[in-house]
Design a protein that fits this description.
With 392 residues, the chain is an alpha/beta fold. Helix content is 37%, strand content 18%. The chain folds into 2 domains: 129 residues, Fe-S cluster assembly (FSCA) (GMP Synthetase, Chain A, domain 3), CATH 3.30.300; 244 residues, Rossmann fold (3-Layer(aba) Sandwich). Helix 8 packs parallel to helix 9. The longest helix is centred in the N-terminal third of the chain and has 17 residues. The N and C termini lie far apart (49 Å).
């Protein structure tokens, strides 16, 4: 039986819940007035919002549910929202102003960008193909999407997207992502001389490369940043949870029992790092021959079993399809090369499901109100607090 979570564990998980309008997590901004845990694993989190009717309320509540719900021992999460007092609003806006002045944001990934890490317990399950096709399928939903190839050693995304462009930096040393098939792309494959070049880097260098891709890349205003993770539970995974605490994971597995058991490890790593697993994607689920018969070459049921064991939905089942392989080899992923095929439709359905589970933070928010608050806070010292909180 899992031990009852502590308040410190809950607060640490809540550091991954970002108020997109204020650019900070709800703990450092002082938005968590109280947390309680019962013996049966029910956690109640109080959240104080600057403006109770703000449209961002739903996103913050959902993120809180997922982050706290990922802690071992948590059976149920209850979120109680309330409006801040004038004094509390003045204090939180002062904190936000200080962060803005000190440029405290750890990365150049916009706070409104939803981060989806695509991980697997081992190699060979088609994780990179899944990352590429999911990113393109999201872009086809009229979303602004970026793709970070964080598999630093085993980069393959540039070939799959058919690009040989090079990453370049401006005078400010900020890297400009490559545009490939409608998405923004960054990969070590766009830096090395050729695809055959071996990167002989140790763990610390791998983490530094990821840090550079997040801190020195002009990602812009993305709806989603999809990150193709290396397989396993190593340095990159740990660095990501530190650099992007708002990241959430989709675990890729095959139907094979062995793959499913190994995939549990990456899910365990994610949860230990307070990174919610939002779903499981089963790849290579079955091969349909010309006669219409389906052959389960890698077994069946692994995705369902993994999803059930993790308590998350199965977001998609991708058939074993030669077009996925051939499309990746020639730089034309299946969602673009054969959009009406079963594989492409399966990826499209999975992308829609992911965007339902983690909705994009659209422009219809209270950004303008908060902008006016921040603007007012830059007024001469001594201005009465009511001048910055009565926004109607």
């Amino acid at each position: 039986m899992a031990r009852m979570p502590t308040n410190d564990q809950i607060l640490e998980a809540l550091r991954g819940v970002v108020d997109p309008e204020l650019g900070g997590d709800v703990v450092e901004l002082g938005m968590i007035p109280d947390v309680s845990v019962t013996e049966d694993g029910t956690v109640t989190v109080g959240i104080a919002l600057t403006i109770a009717e703000c449209p961002m309320r739903s996103q913050i509540e959902q993120d809180t549910q997922r982050k706290v719900g990922a802690i071992p021992g948590v059976r149920e999460v209850r979120v109680e929202t309330r409006a801040m007092t004038k004094q509390q609003r003045a204090e939180v806006m002062s904190t936000a102003r200080l962060k803005a002045r000190e440029n405290a944001e750890p990365t150049l990934v916009n706070a409104l960008t939803r981060v989806i890490a695509v991980g697997s317990g081992k190699g060979g399950v088609g994780k990179s193909s899944a990352s590429v096709n999911l990113a393109l399928a999201m872009a086809d939903l009229d979303l602004k999407v970026g793709l970070l190839d964080a598999d630093i050693w085993g980069f393959s995304i540039p070939r799959m997207l058919g690009t040989e462009q090079r990453l370049e930096a401006g005078e400010d040393r900020i890297i400009v992502p490559v545009e490939a098939q409608g998405i923004k792309l960054v990969s070590t494959g766009l830096i090395v001389e050729s695809e055959e070049t071996a990167l002989m880097w140790r763990g610390l260098m791998l983490s530094k490369a990821l840090e550079q891709f997040l801190k020195q890349v002009s990602w812009g205003d993305l709806d989603y940043l999809v990150i193709d993770m290396p397989p396993g539970t190593g340095d990159i995974q740990m660095a990501l949870s530190r650099l992007l605490p708002q990241a959430e994971m989709v675990v890729v597995t095959t139907p094979q029992k062995a793959a499913q058991k190994v995939a549990v490890r990456v899910a365990d790593m994610a949860r230990r790092s307070y990174m919610p697993v939002i779903g499981v994607l089963e790849n290579m689920s079955g091969f349909e021959c010309a006669h219409g018969d389906v052959h389960h070459l890698f077994g069946r049921g692994g995705g369902d079993e993994l999803a059930e064991s993790l308590g998350v939905p199965l977001v998609g089942t991708i058939p074993l399809d030669e077009h996925i392989v051939s499309g990746g080899d020639r730089g034309m992923p299946v969602v673009r090369a054969n959009p009406d095929g079963k594989s492409a439709r399966a990826f499209a359905a999975a992308a829609r499901r992911i965007t339902e589970l983690v909705p994009a933070a659209r422009d219809e928010t209270c950004t303008a109100r908060v902008a006016r608050l921040l603007e007012a806070l830059d007024a001469p010292a001594g201005a009465h607090p009511k001048s910055v909180v009565n926004l109607g």
